[in-house]
Amino acid sequence: CECTGMRSGDMLLLEKNCIEPHPIYGYLMKWYEHKKRKDRTPIPITSECATAVSRLLEITDPLREDAD
Questions:
Q1: Contact 32, 39 (CB under 8 A)
Q2: Is the model's pTM score more than 0.85?
Q3: What would the pLDDT profile of 18-30 be if each residue is shown by its tens digit?
């Protein structure tokens, strides 16, 4: 995703609770960066990015349940 700098492989491994509201900016997103093997500090994201990530999680939810 351009606005987060995430790799596409990391996007497919996002958890359902990766987006949380931020009182000032809008939203924060947190994830585990597999290349560096560490949790990323939550970063501010735009509402458009939050909507896109939420939609990605919604669409891939059945596949995530079947995956390891």
A1: yes
A2: no
A3: 999 988 878 999 9
